[in-house]
Amino acid sequence: MQHEFTIQVSPEIAAHPDRLKSKVAHKNGIPLDEIRHIQVLKRSIDARQRAIKVNLKLKVYVQEDFIEQPIVLPEYPDVSNAPEVVIIGAGPAGLFAALRCIELGCKPIVLERGKDVQARRRDLKAITRDHIVNEDSNYCFGEGGAGTYSDGKLYTRSKKRGDVHRILELLVGFGATDQILVEAHPHIGTNKLPGIITAIREKIVERGGEVHFDTRVIDFEIKNSEINGVTLLDGSTIATNKVILATGHSARDIFTLLYDKKIEIEAKPFALGVRVEHPQKLIDQIQYSCEVRGPYLPPSPYSIVKQVKGRGMYSFCMCPGGVIAPCATSPGEVVTNGWSPSKRDQPTANSGIVIELRVEDFKEFSKYGPLSGVYFQKSIEQYAWQVGGKTQKVPAQKLVDMVEGRISTNLPETSYKPGLTSADMGVVFPKFIHQTLQDGFKAFGKSMKGYLTNDAVVHAPESRTSSPVRIPRDWKTLEHTQIKGLYPCGEGAGYAGGIISAAIDGEKCAQACVATILSKTV
Ligand code: FAD
Question: Can you provide one Gene Ontology molecular function annotated for this UniProt record (predicted)?
Fold first, then answer.
């Protein structure tokens, strides 16, 4: 017999299967020796009260053995000679689009401007240590896209639980721990993601798909409002009438290309602010209301939202036990974001703290039309680069100093390896952003006692939160509203925000695209 229960236990009991078993037996009146196995279906931490609890959804096997059902990948047919789909970008959207194309019987040809995950590491070292930004290979560009060297958080606001579960299962099939199917807030970690991404690419190639690195698309060939091919940086062209465009939120040259070719794009709201770093111990103390976290709780995340004078200000991409990374994609700019290893065992916690921006906020750049948000974002990144000293050092300020408008006389070393330049955030940001951040941090300090401290350091800017542009598509066919055969996809097109939602959108576009091919071949 199998029974499903939900139960709340201490973190210590949750960590010891035997003690959990005794607790379940006692609570449900089941003889201990009749319980053969307890399978954890869902796990979440409830830190709202002083005595922290772990909520578990369990399947209890009573007088019945548990038979493990391994996750199996879908059948991927050989597509070497199948109809082709060109996919631009090997981020989560592009890679999951490629897998889905194969599953449905088409051959994906993935074109990626960056390098494979291993070669990419050298360029990450170069930006971190030598302040050299490679415009094709960096924290945003290269195999696996922006998500490869990240915290690998896998939660999303998508309500489509079935779609989310499918992506999580695929990730497990390609090597992720099966705990991501159980945890309420799963994450993978920078050290594990490259292996999973490599396994996905190997599967694509093994089944007859193609993945080309160092292959930047610089133009689209369009005839009679239909895509006819793509041009590469080396001048060669690939003829195709099916293109999934999954180039991410940092591919500014693609947005410019579309605009120059009079292919419709729209400015869209996004969010921008700073990345703040606290000692992880302090965040644990605030969130777990204890002096020391102890061995049974993970480094604590936090999530906070406030309305500040009619604008939302919120934590974004919080990385417990993580590191702040230099995420510029061009020389002459600085950008921050964060990553964590799978154990989240670094001594610092960082988070983007960003405020909502509206399209009206970019009016100073309105001469750039739908690119106004891109130019606004770029202007802040370039100005921060100047203030930081024209290297990958970023302007930084202690948190209380920032709120009180004082330049920090000294700054501690933080996890941001290229280095810090003490600066007034009031110089880096337009006044309305700076003031909102100051007021918002005060409000955060009231909700999270201890958060507003000079032990925390603010780094500027956190600017690549989501795409400043939307590429419109038909809601049914998913093709661009003007260009037949062009499928705007993933975060860069404005249809995703994060690894999971980008992967889901990749699958969706592949399905829509393959459906048109197969309906013609039948
Ligand atoms: P991208 O991942 O941006 O992929 C686009 C790809 O297209 C890139 O590989 C790029 O090189 C390629 N490309 C661009 N232009 C061209 C061109 N002209 N020709 C050929 N190829 C091109 N999200 C989470 O959900 N959880 C996290 O923990 C998380 N942490 C992050 C940490 C960091 C440091 C960063 C930078 C991002 C993080 N994100 C995280 C965001 C997440 O990575 C993105 O939301 C996601 O990768 C978007 O997927 P995508 O496929 O739409 O685009």
Answer: oxidoreductase activity
How would you label 95-106 residue by residue, b for 16+ Cβ within 10 Å and e otherwise?
A: bbbbbbbbbbbb
- Are the C-beta atoms of 369 and 354 separated by less than 8 Å? no
Residue (of 299, 342, 337, 320) closest to 192 by Cα position: 342
Substitution candidate for ligand 1 out of 120, 317, 342, 415 with most atoms within 8 A of CB: 317
Question: Which of 309, 288, 286, 306 is closest to 297 using CA atoms?
Answer: 288
- Where are the extended beta strands (E) located within 418-494? 420-422, 457-462, 469-470, 486-488
Domain 2-62 bears CATH identifier 3.30.70.2700: yes
Rounded Cα distance, 30 and 61, in Å = 11
Please tell me whether the overall predicted TM-score, pTM, comes out greater than 0.95 for this model. Answer: yes
Measured N-to-C along each axis, helices 92-103 and 499-521 cross at an angle, to the nearest 10 degrees, of 30
Two tokens, residue 13: 């009991």
Question: Is any atom of ligand 1 closer than 6 Å to the C-beta of 113?
Answer: yes
Over the stretch 321-377, which tens digit does the pLDDT of each residue have? 999 999 999 999 999 999 999 999 999 999 999 999 999 999 999 999 999 999 999
Record: fold of 84-265+476-521: FAD/NAD(P)-binding domain (3.50.50)
> Locate tokens 């006819």: which residue?
228
Domain coordinates in residue numbering, the chain: 2-62, 84-265+476-521, 271-462
